[in-house]
Amino acid sequence: MAQQKTRVAILGTGNIGTDLLIKAMRSDLLECTLFVGRNLRSDGMQKASELGAPISDRGIDGIVQHADNIDIVFDATSAAAHMVHWPVLQKLGKTVIDMTPAKIGDLCVPAINTDQIIASRAQNINMITCGGQASVPIANAIAAVQDDIEYIEVASSIASRSAGPATRANLDEYIETTEQALIKFGRTRLAKAILILNPARPPIDMQTTIYAKVGNPNLAAIRASVAEMITRIKQYVPGYQLIVPPTIEGGKVMTTVKVLGNGDYLPRYAGNLDIINCAAIGIAERIARQRTE
Q: Which of 155, 209, 212, 228 has the fewest beta carbons closer than 10 A?
């Protein structure tokens, strides 16, 4: 007998929402029962129609109307919009995977705390930011073998064309939420996150450089820990690559990663959007497995 799929709705029909739709439709564990936005003529809505996904232009009211046919809601709108959506979704009793940097729910990086998120049955799961998904696991890997991290700084450079209106509207929240996650999972006192929107043509691939000020760094242990973390991330983000292994530079540990997307809906250079979507789908599939178990 075929396993019943977990029913998901996607709220937000921009780049992230549309790419999530394609990933969800490909999943053996998830079924997209509603794709919700505001404009039936948007590129995302038209793509969803082509794929045969049920659509609605009623926003959060569409979720309320079809609540009985939804188990998980991906909120792919904006941090400000999520503040409005969350009380509604909470009252409906839906599990919410928040793609915005609203930081209402439990911060989640699949390579670090999937088991804890699943065990706690968190109702609101926050996927931090694209830069957070790229950098926080590396910060955590360094913290796993170093107790004396004074400061972590991460600089992510992404193609300007991959940053849509919601990303640009969320820049302040992006910085705050990424820094909060770095402090939490990197076990550091101070953190700084920098995002660079590069307008170069052709568009650049996403790259993130992590700097950690560490007293008496054990470079061999750091490299081994980072290599193990890279392996874990690649299980759900195949395009995640270490391009500069950890080195000592100016008294700091420095390392750089690059993310290439799967090319599902977005160009491969948009690894910044792909990594957060892959992470979100991974968590949704774990929740789906938990439901069937």
A: 228
Other Cβ atoms less than 10 A from the Cβ of 123: the count is 14
Q: Which CATH number belongs to the domain containing residue 242 in this structure?
A: 3.30.360.10
Catalytic residue chosen out of the listed positions 32, 108, 130, 278: 130
Closest CA to 210 of 224, 222, 197: 222
Report the length, in residues, of the chain: 293
- Domain around 196: 130-268
Please name the helix (run of DSSP H) or strand (run of DSSP E) that holds residue 208, with its range, or none.
strand 206-214
**Are 156 and 280 in the same domain?**
no
Q: How much is the pLDDT for 1?
A: 44
The label of the residue with tokens 């995640």 reads: 240
- Six-digit token pair at 202? 């052709």
Sign of CA dihedral 36, 130, 179, 288: positive
Known catalytic membership, residue 278: no
**Under-70 pLDDT residues of the chain:** 1-3
Secondary structure (3-state) at 29: coil
Beta strands in 12-166 (DSSP E): 30-36, 55-56, 72-75, 95-98, 106-107, 124-126, 149-159
Alpha-carbon gap, residue 106 to 39, rounded angstroms:
31
CA neighbor of 78 nearest in space, from 170, 209, 151, 149: 170
The pair of three-digit structure tokens given for residue 219, joined into one six-digit string? 């470079």
SS3 54: coil
The answer to whether residues 154 and 119 belong to one domain is no
Q: Are residues 100 and 120 in the same domain?
A: yes
